């Protein structure tokens, strides 16, 4: 599946614009991480873009989240590594590959970064820096839904928390217009 096909599938399946923005943010972060780690940027980006394809359908049934998406993606002949990463991000299967581990850490960090931007006086990603996000990270009540343990799994990628946040923040700043931030 190429990006255009994935984008069309998302637009026909996902109605919540904030969810679409989250998927775009995850795509941008995974592309940047793939570049940093010498991995396949297209494959990693695709995994980020489609990872929550079924969220609206499965939000009341966490055990089926990502499993429905995996079935949809498999029906579109998506690379099995992408399908595995989608399943791994939900916590329903163990992350094994570098891509699996990257998506597990990236999924919640996008929410933390967005929340940090929204609390910044300017409400703009361009004015947020890594230190600002890391200070928010330490406050467990801030963006409480952003699972800190998952974010810290960036160490499994060989990245410090600071480096990981810097990469993801930079990626999201590059698409700030699409994110409305």
TrEMBL record:
What protein name applies here?
HDIG domain-containing protein
Q: Where is the HD domain?
A: 20-104
* Pfam families found in the cross-reference section: HD
Which species expresses this protein natively?
Answer: candidate division WOR-3 bacterium
**Which Gene3D superfamilies does this UniProt record tie to the protein?**
Hypothetical protein af1432
């Amino acid at each position: 599946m190429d990006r255009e096909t994935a984008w069309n599938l998302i637009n026909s399946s996902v109605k919540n614009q904030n969810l679409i923005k989250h998927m775009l943010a995850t795509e941008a972060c995974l592309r940047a991480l793939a570049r940093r780690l010498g991995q396949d940027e297209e494959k990693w980006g695709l995994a980020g873009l489609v990872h929550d394809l079924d969220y609206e359908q499965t939000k009341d049934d966490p055990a089926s989240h990502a499993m429905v998406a995996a079935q949809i993606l498999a029906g579109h002949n998506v690379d099995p590594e992408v399908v595995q990463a989608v399943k791994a991000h939900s916590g329903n299967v163990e992350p094994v590959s570098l891509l699996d581990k990257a998506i597990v850490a990236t999924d919640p960090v996008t929410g933390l970064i967005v929340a940090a931007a929204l609390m910044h006086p300017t409400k703009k990603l361009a004015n947020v820096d890594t230190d600002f996000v890391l200070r928010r990270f330490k406050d467990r009540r801030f963006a409480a839904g952003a699972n800190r343990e998952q974010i810290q799994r960036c160490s499994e990628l060989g990245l410090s928390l600071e480096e990981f946040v810097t990469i993801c923040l930079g990626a999201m700043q590059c698409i700030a217009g699409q994110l409305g931030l």
